[in-house]
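To the team - nicotinamide-adenine-dinucleotide complex, inputs and output below.
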Amino acid sequence: MSTVPGITLNDGSTIPQLGFGVYQIKPGETVQAVGEALEIGYRHIDTAEMYGNEKEVGEAVRASGLDRGDVFVTSKLNNSFHDPDDARAAFETTLSELGFDYVDLFLIHWPLPTLYNGDYVSTWKVMEEFKSDGRARSIGVSNFQIEHLEKLAAETDTVPAVNQIEVHPYLTNDAVRGYGQEHGIVTEAWSPIAQGGVLEDPTITQIAEKVGKTPAQVVLRWHIQRGDIVFPKSVTPSRMKENFELFDFELESSDVSGISALDRDEDGRTGPHPDTFAYVPS
Ligand code: NAD
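Output:
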């Protein structure tokens, strides 16, 4: 079994650099998929209130027989709950859905700068409460741009432990990553293989052929060597295994930079833009 490195966060906690993402896994399939992931060796699960499968993630962790402390679980505050009292209630619901008395990491899912009068600062101050009462071991943000991070830095006391943003070879997102590196915020790369959209790129397939690995392994290894955290999603056990086998080979630095050069900047973005995204579930 390959050994997943741990990354130390700015609050001293350690997070496995490779995890398993459960976005778009139906609740009915989640217990099985997460159970298989834990069996393969994944010890880090990335869920969110928005994904509708927190309950099943908790069930799978309990059913695995692993100690709660051996699995790193992240969840996220949904967009409807940025007002402080709503955030407090939503966090309690997350814990009760998971059936846990703490989460390892809790994130503000989106900054929503066009909603809530542009106020994500008071939401972040409520996240600080969850950290100080121990129910969130670490707190962070997702989809925050540099100006959003700067605002938190100017108006609050806690630097987010992570920023979970879209990153893959077609959107390297290096400016936001660079701000994180300078300020002790680890980048978590979501949609690390662009939901499969980068796997047929000739630069990637040629490197895969050269090193004797699959295109998905090459792209995930590229993220690992750049120092980001990844949690690819799959419900296919053979792909889950494939995505876990990243630590028995290394890319040459010229291949890392060759993949980074595939960046298409904003044209490569597959998800919503954090500056304008304003979806609030009813
Ligand atoms: P991903 O890049 O992990 O791609 C997943 C898709 O790629 C799968 O549905 C499957 O079709 C395919 N795939 C997976 N492994 C493969 C392999 N080895 N070979 C070929 N195809 C393969 O995309 P994602 O699910 O969007 O992102 C991963 C995780 O990131 C999510 O599950 C979620 O936890 C997180 N995420 C967070 C946000 C956010 O706003 N914070 C947004 C999107 C995703």
